[in-house]
Write a structure and sequence with these properties.
The two termini are about 20 Å apart. The chain contains two helices and eight strands; from the N terminus they run βαββββαβββ. The protein has about 160 residues and is α+β, with helices and mostly antiparallel strands. The protein has one domain: 2,3-Dihydroxybiphenyl 1,2-Dioxygenase, domain 1, CATH 3.10.180.
């Protein structure tokens, strides 16, 4: 069963961890100096926060697949809907290894479709930009990371 994903940038991780831990009545599943994640079952959501953005707010949304077949289904749906798809493939990001691709909604909001393969000790693995000008690593494609007011927003899972 798929899981909804939401990643939010915060100014003060400690204060935000305290707030969301009380809101969800649960401690983070993963807690790092710059990142926290809750894998909740009710509602079924992968909720992550980090201090790696330029300003607070929603970074991206997504759907986490439980296996390769679900990820392939998400990819096929995106392709059938003629959505611009940025296939990253294998990535190390947000303290995890995964397979992923990105689609962007009409307002420029990035949606990540991914299947987590395991935990890693690093936030991300640096990679050079792809030939199409998009990030080759885990981060939100550059084309999708522009904010509403036109200023670019740096982001990573």
């Amino acid at each position: 069963m798929k899981r909804f994903h939401l990643h939010v940038h915060v100014d003060d991780l400690g204060r935000s961890v305290d707030f969301y831990s009380r809101l969800f009545a649960a401690s983070p599943t993963r807690l790092e100096a710059d990142y926290a994640k809750w894998m909740l079952d009710d509602p079924r959501v992968n909720f992550a926060i980090s201090t790696r953005g330029e300003r607070p707010g929603i970074d991206h949304l997504g759907i986490q697949a439980e296996d390769a077949a679900e990820l392939a289904e998400l990819k096929a749906r995106a392709e059938a809907a003629d959505l611009a798809l940025h296939d990253v493939g294998a990535a190390t990001c947000c303290y995890a290894r995964s397979e992923k691709h990105w689609v962007t909604d009409p307002q420029g909001l990035a949606w990540e479709h991914f299947h987590t393969l395991g935990d890693v000790p690093l936030f991300s693995e640096p990679r050079p930009p792809a030939a199409d000008g998009l990030h080759a690593a885990c981060c939100v494609p550059k084309a999708a990371s522009a904010s509403v007011d036109g200023k670019p927003a740096s982001s990573c899972c």
